[in-house]
C-alpha cells in the first residue's frame, strides 16, 4: 500500500489545468524533475532521491517582440526520446522546447490559435489494443473507476501499471497484462486513493516501477507524494 511522504514546496500554486504535473527521473544523477504550471509560469523543482536537496527554476511563456509575455501556459510535459530528454511547454502563443533541466530553450514555434487540452468528461478510461504495425487498433476495455471527468492518465516505464486521476478527487492505480491466448489487454484495479477536498490537476508515477506517485491540486502550493510501504 501507499503512504503519504513529505510534500515538495513550489513557488506558486497550481493552475486548474488537466495534466498539470510533469515528472522525469534522472537516474545517473539520482534526481527527479517536477513541473507545475501557474498562469504564464512553469514552476520546476529538481529533487534529490534522498530528499535532502531541492533546487527551483521558473520558466515564463514567450511570444515574439514582447519582453514579458502574459500568454497563459496550457501544459508542460517531459518528452523522453531515445537520444535525449526534453521539456515541452505549450502556451496560447507558441510551443517552447527546453533541455530537460529547463536551463536552455532550444526551440520556439508560434501558434496561430490556442492549443487547449481536453479530457473524457464521462470519467471513463478507454483501453485500446494497438499492434506493433498497421492500423488495426481495437477498443479492448472501458474502465468505469471514476464518477467525474478524467484530469490525468500516466503509466510507468514497463507499461504494466496505469495511474488515473479525476475531478472526483480519486487517484486509482491499475494493473495491465496481456492475455497470451488472444494478446488482448486485461485490466485489474490495484489501489484507490482519495485526495480529500482537492481538485486534482495532475498525477504521475515518480519511478519506473510504479513504487511511488505524485499528485498536484488546484490552488495547492505543494506536490503530494505517495509511496508503497
TrEMBL record:
Residues 1-159, 161-227 form the WD repeat-containing protein 54 beta-propeller domain. Keywords: WD repeat. WD repeats lie at residues 143-177. It holds the Pfam family WDR54. The keyword Protein transport does not apply. InterPro entries: WD40/YVTN_repeat-like_dom_sf, WD40_repeat_dom_sf, WD40_rpt, WDR54_beta_prop. PROSITE patterns: WD_REPEATS_2, WD_REPEATS_REGION. SUPFAM superfamilies: WD40 repeat-like. This is WD repeat-containing protein 54 beta-propeller domain-containing protein. It comes from Dissostichus mawsoni (Antarctic cod).
Amino acid at each position: 500500500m501507499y503512504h503519504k511522504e513529505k510534500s515538495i514546496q513550489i513557488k506558486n500554486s497550481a493552475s486548474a489545468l488537466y495534466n498539470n504535473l510533469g515528472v522525469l527521473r534522472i537516474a545517473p544523477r539520482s534526481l527527479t524533475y517536477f513541473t507545475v504550471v501557474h498562469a504564464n509560469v512553469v514552476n520546476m523543482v529538481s529533487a534529490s532521491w534522498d530528499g535532502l536537496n531541492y533546487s527551483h527554476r521558473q520558466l515564463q511563456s514567450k511570444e515574439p517582440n514582447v519582453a514579458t509575455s502574459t500568454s497563459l501556459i496550457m501544459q508542460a510535459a517531459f518528452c523522453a526520446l531515445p537520444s535525449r530528454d526534453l521539456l515541452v511547454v505549450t502556451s496560447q502563443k507558441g510551443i517552447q522546447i527546453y533541455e530537460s533541466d529547463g536551463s536552455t530553450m532550444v526551440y520556439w514555434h508560434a501558434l496561430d490559435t490556442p492549443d487547449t487540452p481536453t479530457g473524457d468528461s464521462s470519467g471513463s478510461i478507454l483501453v485500446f489494443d494497438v499492434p506493433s504495425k498497421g492500423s488495426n487498433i481495437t477498443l479492448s476495455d472501458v474502465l468505469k473507476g471514476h464518477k467525474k471527468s478524467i484530469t490525468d492518465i500516466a503509466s510507468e516505464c514497463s507499461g504494466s501499471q496505469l495511474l488515473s486521476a479525476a475531478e472526483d478527487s480519486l487517484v486509482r492505480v491499475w494493473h495491465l497484462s496481456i492475455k497470451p491466448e488472444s494478446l488482448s489487454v486485461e485490466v485489474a484495479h490495484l489501489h484507490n486513493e482519495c485526495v480529500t477536498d482537492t481538485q486534482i490537476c495532475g498525477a504521475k508515477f515518480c519511478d519506473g516501477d510504479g513504487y511511488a506517485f505524485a499528485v498536484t491540486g488546484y490552488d495547492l502550493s505543494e506536490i503530494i507524494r505517495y509511496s508503497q510501504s
